[in-house]
Amino acid sequence: MSYLEHSVKSVPSGFRKILHLNWALILLLIAVSSVGFLMLYSVAGGSFSPWAEAQMKRFLMGLVLMFGIAMVPIWFWRNVSGVLYLGSLVLLVLVEIMGSVQMGAQRWIDLGFMRLQPSELMKITLVMFLAAYYDWLPAKKTSRPFWIILPIVIILVPTFLVLRQPDLGTALLLLMGGAMVIFIAGVHWAYFAVVFAMGIGLVTAVFQSRGQSWQLLKDYQYRRIDTFLDPASDPLGAGYHITQSKIALGSGGWTGRGFMQGTQTRLNFLPEKHTDFIFTTLAEEFGFLGAVSLLALYALVIVFCVASALQNKDRFSALMTMGIAGTFFLFFAVNMSMVMGMAPVVGVPLPLVSYGGSAMLVLMVAFGMVQSAHVHRPR
Amino acid sequence: MKRTAAETAASNARMTRRGILLGGAQLGFMGLLGLRMRYLQVDQADEFRLLAEENRINIRLIAPARGEIFDRNGVIIAANEPSYRITIVREDAGNVEEVIARLSTLIELDDAALNRAMTEMKRSAPFLPVAVAERISWEEMSRVAVNAPALPGVTPEVGLSRLYPHGPDFAHVIGYVGPVSDYDLSKIDDPDQLLLIPRFQIGKVGLEAKREDKLRGKAGTKRVEVNAVGRVMRELDRREGQPGDDLQLTVDQKLQSYIQARLGEESAAAVVMDCNTGEILAINSAPSFDPNLFVRGISVADYSALTENDHRPLATKSVQGTYPPGSTFKMVVALSALEAGTIDSKTTHWCPGHLQVSNRRFHCWKRGGHGHMNLETALRESCDVYFYELALEVGIEKITNMANRLGLGVKHGIPMSAVAGGLTPTKEWKARNRDTPWVIGDTVNASIGQGFVLASPLQLAVMSARLASGKAVEPTLVKSINGIDQTVPAEDVPDLDVNPNHLRMVRQAMFAVSNHRKGTAYSQRIIMDEYRLAGKTGTSQVRNITAAERRAGVIRNEDLPWGRRDHGLFVNFAPYDNPRIAVAVIVEHGGGSSAATPIARDITLQALFNGDPPLEAYPSKDRGRIRSQQERLRQEYLARQSNDRGRA
After folding, report:
1. Which contiguous run of DSSP H or E holds residue B223?
2. Would the N or C end of chain B have less CB density within 10 A of its end CB?
3. What pLDDT sits at residue B312?
4. Which residues of B touch A143 (CB under 8 A)?
């Protein structure tokens, strides 16, 4: 499989590529991000600073980045995916060594103009590298044990590094995102059954290790799990996040309290209202209808991505697009489950809505890849 | 790597299948998220909305104005004065030290209070106001208000604080208020939310404490929106409370203040009652203290000065102090003998100066004895032996019964602190409380108000009033609550159920005490006919006189240390022809009844004339002394008034 195999002629070139972008997807992304701007404006008490304005700038930057990436042929990205993966891995090791300490976790590298979280970058490069791997691997070998070990190592190395930071949320996303790519690539069912069984074993081990010398998670992570299982046990302490979040969410009702009228957010009952818990603000102010609308926008993003992937006859493009869609899905699914009390508080932002530079830029880069795959699909 | 078309097609088909499967699973999970949203936001919305309101809305109480207290003529005794204080909010002040330094150039700041404020400020949340100066003057407050721009975070506040314009005169009657303490709260099962307001004042002792229920009022509420750390964002609405009820006392402020001045620094108590209705016109205990000190927070030095004073200014001697009534008890014995029929007005007993009762010799106060005594002469000259004889004939049970009917040994329900029941002993009482059984000597001792008998000045005043009116009057202190009359009209007071002739005989004897040349209080009589008083002197021993001392000659009171001198008592009613008031006076360790009698006469006249009486009421030889005393008390009163005004 090489560059020449594609009927290059049918691929648009130059500025004509812009016409062949997946514009529906771009509009969806703008819509989702606008919801974010609106909410950031609201949680700042009706002010563009400190969050909404910065977020808009980043989004514009991300949009430019996305267009830039989309113009570059997808096969180039496929060819460099290994390098990108290794680069991300090096950065991950770097933060491990010299990363600044913030909130008890070493997560980012200060680039001067922004703080880069290599773990965010890894979410994309991992998916790309796995997609490239399965693109290279002959189909009949996909389910052979040896060829399974390799992608597992590819997934577990960064996952382990991220877990050490410690960032349970991102580690979970990496693991599940990678697993999704392997699944779509067509690995035999039996492997997943085995992994599922092992997962259960791991969960058991995590609980068993508590208080032992080989304790697998930090104490605060255990506490979060405890409070997830029973938030009412400590409503003012560790269970505060979940309890307050549910109160804010529930008090929204059908149509919400109205824009900028969310009392729980306004009065600071909600923790981290501009980052991980921004969905509760939305749900409180715009109610069930607002929350479901955002969910619908996200669903459309997934549907458009999957549709684009299914149309794409290029194996790498299809795998990568569906992997990115899966990662994007994991972002909001975990975040929403968390604020609705269906998952422990693990610190995953709401994609494109939560305030945060790295996540926003990395997601736009990812959608740049999706656009590139869409534009350069074999016709 | 080469791959066959078939392989590629198969693998692509599988990929498509799995892609659709995964995409479907994702959409399915989103559906789950949607259902969860629906459950939280629609199905459980009401519950969560309620929780959110509780989170957000804080109900704050508004302290009601405390009910005020007036005397029987409407003179204010316990007032609410606006109290200005200066508070600082640390967060708004920025540099607290600098702001306080600037503030101290405007008003005087108390170092101790300032230190307390600084520590409180460090401890409490930065947005909470902390008082740095309390009870500042209006001028000081306006100085601060004018300079507000230079004083960020500084707020002058107005609140209500208790003020007792007559200071010590009513200290024992109405007591004082103070901030709620943890101890106060521990005594109440379900404390009113109001009590939890910082610095909220409640009645601590006296009427302020006993009628707390009426005086406190009902809290108003305001609903405020607060954020997660409790800062008030805005007020949503407010409901005004209900101020406490105003109380009007039966006490006459002018008389009360006069008596307090007249008692001076003596350790003494006096009670004046309307003998037909039981209304208390004055009820004093001396020495007194300034209740305003307690409202403001009394200093350790001031407090220990009060507790270490051997004259016990904090004790309410008028109701709490119980004393052997001494000879003032003789009316009880006389009346019980008359009612039992063992004597009549002509019955005589021989007083040789002592009486031998089962191996023990009981002395009369007059060593040589009184000779033949009948009821009137015995009471007039306070012959002890006559009453020993009466008591031996009547027995202790009847005497106690009569004492109780006259109001002794009974706890009268007036709203003051620590009202004592006194003691009128019976044989059962002694069997229960002492190891030895009742002996005849106990009866003999009780007949002259010594031994186990104990009575408070209030009880003696009640006795005097009942003797005077023949009605079973009960003392009352509160005339009206919020304008609603609480007193019992004279015609509704039940009769004492004692033969009126017997009462008249006792009254006649009491008249002789003060108006017969040989009466024990003759020197302290009133000479205006329409104001003549009838009374009874009393001296109660606080020590035993041993046989050896009696042989060597009883030590004179003046030669004893203060704490071992006899108490002086006097009870009386006046005017004799048409009794209006009853008075009881006790001077602790006064050395004998002569300490109490002149005070009682002055009080009686003051009450009857509703102010300084004409000198013609006094025997001519006393007039010079009385004139200068009236002048001195008037000057003192004026001086104190202007002093109070300056302080307030």
Report:
1. strand B220-226
2. N
3. 92
4. none
Q: Which of B20, B26, B41 sits opposite A250 (nearest CB)?
A: B41
Distance CA B21, CA B73 (A): 95
For A317-340, what is the mean pLDDT?
Answer: 92
Q: Would A230 be classed as within a structural domain?
A: no
Picking from B3, B17, B26, B38 by the largest number of A CB atoms within 10 A of its own CB, the best residue to mutate is B26
Residues of chain B with CATH 3.90.1310.10: 60-249
User: Residue B61's pLDDT is what?
Assistant: 73
Q: What are phi and psi of B638, to 5 degrees?
A: -60, -40
Instruction: For residue B104, indicate whether it is catalytic.
Output: no
Express each pLDDT in A345-379 by its tens digit. 777 889 999 988 788 889 999 999 999 999 998 87
- Concatenated DSSP letters of B318-358: TTT--B--GGGGHHHHHHHHHHHTS--TT--EEE-SEEEET
Instruction: Please choose, from the candidates B221, B258, B215, the residue with its C-alpha nearest in 3D space to the C-alpha of residue B613.
Output: B258
Residues of B in contact with A244 (CB under 8 A): 55
Searching chain A, which residue's CA lies closest to the CA of residue B17? A184
Strand order in the sheet with B232-239: B57-62, B220-226, B232-239
pLDDT at site B161:
86
What does the pLDDT read at residue B232? Answer: 67
**Can you tell me the distance from the alpha carbon of B121 to that of B10, in angstroms, rounded to the nearest whole number?**
76
Per-residue pLDDT, averaged over A326-339, amounts to: 91
Q: Which of B14, B19, B40 sits opposite A309 (nearest CB)?
A: B19
- Which pLDDT band holds residue A216 (cuts at 50, 70, 90)? confident
In angstroms, the CA A296 to CA A30 distance is 14
Confidence of residue A3 (pLDDT cuts 50, 70, 90): very low
Q: Which of B17, B20, B22, B233 to mutate to test the interface with A (most CBs of A within 10 A)?
A: B22
The pLDDT assigned to A346 comes to 76
Minimum Cα–Cα distance from B232: chain A residue? A267
In chain B, where does the domain assigned CATH 3.40.710.10 lie?
253-295+320-480+488-617
Cα B117 to its chain centre, rounded Å, is 32
Chain A contact probe: residue of B4, B7, B15, B231 with most A CBs at under 10 A: B15
Third-level CATH fold of B60-249: Penicillin-binding protein 2a (Domain 2) (3.90.1310)
| Closest CA of chain A from B92, distance in Å | 19
Check B161, B288, B318, B327 and give the catalytic one: B327
3-class state of residue B476 by DSSP: strand
DSSP letters, A34-90, are: HHHHHHHHHHTTS-STTTHHHHHHHHHHHHHHHHHHHHS-HHHHHHHHHHHHHHHHH
Tell me which chain A residues have a C-beta less than 8 angstroms from the C-beta of B53. Answer: 251
Nearest to A287 among B20, B36, B41 (CB): B41
B225: closest chain A residue by CA: A267
Give the domain range for residue A318: 10-217+273-279+290-333+355-375
- Kindly determine whether residue B30 and residue A136, on different chains, have CB atoms separated by under 8 Å: no
Choosing among 3.40.710.10, 3.30.70.890, 3.90.950.20, 3.40.50.970, the CATH entry for B253-295+320-480+488-617 is 3.40.710.10
Q: Select from B11, B41, B52 the Cβ nearest to the Cβ of A264.
A: B52
Residue A16 covered by a domain: yes
Q: What residues of chain A lie within 8 A of the CB of B228, using their CB?
A: 267-269
The Cβ of residue B452 has, within 10 Å, a number of other Cβ atoms equal to 18
| Percent of chain B predicted with pLDDT > 90 | 53
Tell if the pTM clears 0.80, that is, is over it: no
A-B contacts at Cβ under 8 angstroms: 143
In a domain, A195, yes or no: yes
Tell me how many domains chain A contains.
1
- Give the residue with greater pLDDT, A105 vs A286: A286
**B11 contacts A139? CB cut-off 8 A:** yes
Residue A106: pLDDT band (50, 70, 90) is: low
Asked if A246 lies within 8 A of B228 by C-beta distance, the reply is: no
Model confidence pLDDT, tens digit, residues A6-57: 445 567 777 788 888 999 999 999 999 999 999 999 888 788 888 889 999 9
